[in-house]
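Researcher: Re-running this chain for the archive, since the previous output was lost when a drive failed. Same request as before.
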Amino acid sequence: MTTPVIPSPRATRSNAMRGGINTELYAWLFMRVSGVILIVLIFGHLFVNLMVGDGVAAIDFAFVAGKWSEPFWQVWDLLMLWLAMIHGTNGVRTIINDYAERNATRIVLKALLYVAFVVTVVMGTLVIFTFDPCPAGSPADLLPSICFS
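Model: Regenerated structure tokens:
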């Protein structure tokens, strides 16, 4: 009776074995770097929104409108959105690769994941850069109070 051969844990089927680019290595590195950057972005976001000024009581439509009127905060929130979405999508992709046993299931789940990623990033980016609390030509009774000052 022959004993089945168990491949070495270090032996992978990646492109690196064939002399190509090791995408999993870069994905792993991205997760570490983006995680550190996200910690800075998220704690900065929380500090400004909850600790500066009147704290959580001051967060309303006018607060967001005032914050997004400055390009610095638009870029800050955009970086936070993009990094969090890429970081999370990469993590879920890894989970799908680990637990989806059939190739068809893996392909469908990843396709759904990527569609959700694209929709969320595109919509979030559009909201951040096209947000206008006081659109021209809107009825006065529908505009927030900040538009009249």
